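Milestone M4 deliverable, item 7.
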Amino acid sequence: MNTDELDSVLFGAERRVLKIQTKLHCWARDDAHRRFDDLLNLVADPAFLLVAWDRVRGNKRARTAGVDGRTAWSIEAGQGVGEFLDGLRSQIKDRSFRPLPVRERMIPKAGGKLRRLGIATIADRVVQASLKLVLEPIFEADFYPCSYGFRPNRRAHDAVAELRYFASRSYAWVVEGDITAASTRSRIRP
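Output delivered:
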């Protein structure tokens, strides 16, 4: 599959994924007790896998190999994207997919300390990205609007902008909080 064909197929896949994500979000928002069954079929859906591949491939870390030694470019040059995603899809569908261990690297931090970095394989990253595409619209319906951590289209700068907005409104009170472990205890509406 050449680049032009892939772009055309990718455009259709992105539209399909967005349509399904919109449905999932609406269902989750409208019925807080709804059970979502068979989400694995969406994770293995060719459109979701292709969009996930595109996101992994577009990331600068796509040049970094996991323990299997494969990069996005080596997959494109070798077996090809279509064959790679078909194999991944069949492994997910027959439940034989098993993530490989991460490749560990120590990277320097400020102050001379080192930080451990885990590098997943490209296949693991694609499956994780596909899972994110499926689960994110479901859980987004439950998060508070004032929550900014690790959410789509929300970043630290948005939180700071909201603080500045409220500060400019001459409020006479301030709440101080410790968010040291906030990322491990995200707040979800009941």
